[in-house]
Amino acid sequence: GLREKLRRLRARSITSPNVGGGTGSRLRNAPAGAASSEALFRRHIEDMQQSVEELQYQLRRARASEADIRSSLAARSSALRTVLRLGALAELRLPQCGPIRMPNAADAERDALRAAVQEQLQWNLQLRRASGHIAGAAE
């Protein structure tokens, strides 16, 4: 039965070992068309493996670029917030005489930030209206 077939296959592989992945004797004993189709198939597999390696490399580069962009965006956002805040609170800065700095009043700071936000919202509305007119004219 099955054990006998396994013994015969094992004995056959011991008496005539295949070197190079087990297809050498098949290629030598196969007709020319089968050998060339198997060689073509192997070439196709190698090409696909190379494509996979290239795509994995590109994916690693894209992930690294994405991480760099996210880091840069976070740093720029933080810097922009700082600049906008300093600009909004510029009028509250008192001239400093000596080493002691006088803190800004919380209400004055809040009012200055509120005014800056309202001004920015008005600019956004004007830009939106202007882009609406441009989009309407283009249609």
Automatic annotation (TrEMBL):
It comes from Spumella elongata. It comes from the Eukaryota. Residues 12-31 are annotated as: Disordered. This is Uncharacterized protein.
